[in-house]
Specification:
four-stranded mixed β-sheet; 22 strands; 398 residues; Alpha-Beta Plaits; 3 domains; globular; alpha+beta
């Protein structure tokens, strides 16, 4: 599943939660149950209520508390509370990671170690509830990819524990670095620090995929503020991106980066290619000899990478090779689901790549590195054959 965040009015933690619950209402009861498992949230009352602003309808996520809250919580204190709770480990890790994004931004703003940052508004019970709820929904939905629309900046000032600050707040600006933003002329806080931290944690693409997809859900989460002639909402749009009728064949959008060079030795280029393979976002690299101008032998290099990482991969190409120009474009591929299993065969651990093919057929192939030290071809083949007969071999049913 792919989910696109359309920041019509902006984004905050409660708007993110409300929008996802509007699209996936069957998760409401389980979410509220999970919130009650955190000691610092036992006194809260959380509600998911229908909302109508006179133009559109959706939901609001409301958190109330009957006791006084001092609002001052450190990152380490919140992290301990999360780890001591009965929340699923994945939710704890996700919520902690969102708070860490906030801690790093606040630390940079105030010149402090992120672990020593004292959260004020973000440390309040309602913000903790928003982040824990967001973490629950992100992990529960197990979304394959996210994207986000250009982000409205807003303007004016907002009152905080640090006094009156410009909008966007300084920590919010840090969290939104490298995302596309715009000013639609409407004053007010459009993106809260919590909303910005959620976006940063999701690491979404900055535009929707151009792959054909099936639209399956949409939801509207409203904030507490009102803007003239604009609904203050976050819209989520969910797509099925598995490929239509045959769900076993996945579809992916990739970037292909291509260049040629003739002034780098093969020995040095092999080191550069190894470094490129280690670059975040690189999926595969091939190189081949080709004939170029004046009949000279060139090296042709072709890289497949994740689209969101294309700029950093191109920068690494310029650092690791002698090329002075590269070409890149988007490509699409269809891939089969695969996983790596480990089996013990003749006192050795052998990794096996298991692929699910159309018709629920499974094929398996041993990793050659795990049997490469076996002396002869016939011995290697015997281990590979035994592995295939060990319950995960070719043409076995799942």
């Amino acid at each position: 599943m792919h989910i696109h965040l359309d920041l019509v009015g902006g984004i905050s933690g409660d708007m993110f939660v409300a929008a996802l619950l509007d699209a996936f209402p069957d998760l409401e009861e389980e979410l509220l149950s999970n919130l009650s498992s955190l000691d610092s949230l036992r006194q809260i009352e959380a509600e998911i209520i229908p909302y109508d602003d006179g133009v559109l309808t959706g939901k609001q996520f409301i958190v109330k508390n009957g006791k006084e809250d001092h609002h001052h919580r450190s990152y380490e204190s919140i992290k301990r509370d999360l780890e001591d709770s009965s929340l699923d480990d994945r939710i704890v890790r996700r919520a902690t990671a969102i708070f860490w994004e906030l801690a790093q931004a606040e630390g940079k703003v105030h010149g402090k170690d992120p672990r020593e940052v004292q959260f004020h508004e973000v440390g309040a019970w309602d913000s903790i509830a928003d982040i824990v709820s967001a973490a629950f929904l992100i992990e529960k939905l197990a979304v394959g990819s996210w994207s986000v629309s250009p982000i409205p900046l807003g303007s004016g000032r907002v009152e905080t524990a640090h006094g009156s600050l410009p909008v966007p707040a300084p920590a919010t600006l840090i969290l939104l670095e490298n995302f596309p933003v715009f000013d639609d002329g409407l004053p007010g806080e459009r993106v809260t620090p919590t909303g910005a931290a959620i976006i940063r944690n999701l690491n979404p693409a900055t535009k929707k995929s151009s792959l054909p997809m099936r639209l399956i859900k949409s939801g509207y989460g409203f904030g507490s503020k009102a803007f003239p002639n604009l609904s203050n909402l976050l819209r989520v749009v969910a797509f099925d991106d598995t490929g239509g009728e045959n769900d076993s064949i996945l579809r992916e959008e990739l970037a292909e980066i291509v260049f040629e060079l003739d002034d780098q030795t093969a020995e040095d280029l092999s080191v550069g290619i190894d470094h490129l393979r280690e670059t975040e976002g690189v999926i595969d690299i091939i190189q081949a000899p080709v004939f170029g101008k004046k009949g000279r032998i060139f090296f042709h290099v072709q890289i497949l990478a994740k689209p969101e990482c294309v700029e950093q991969v191109i920068e690494r190409c310029f650092k690791e090779t002698t090329t002075i120009g590269v070409r890149w474009h988007k490509v699409y591929r269809r891939v089969l689901p695969r996983k790596i299993q480990s089996v013990t065969m003749e006192d050795r651990e052998v990794r096996v790549k298991v692929v699910t093919r159309p018709g629920n057929t499974v094929t398996a192939k041993t990793e050659i590195d795990d049997v490469s030290d076996v002396k002869t071809f016939h011995e290697r083949n015997r281990i590979r054959t035994k592995t295939e007969k060990n319950g995960i071999g070719k043409h076995d049913e799942e």
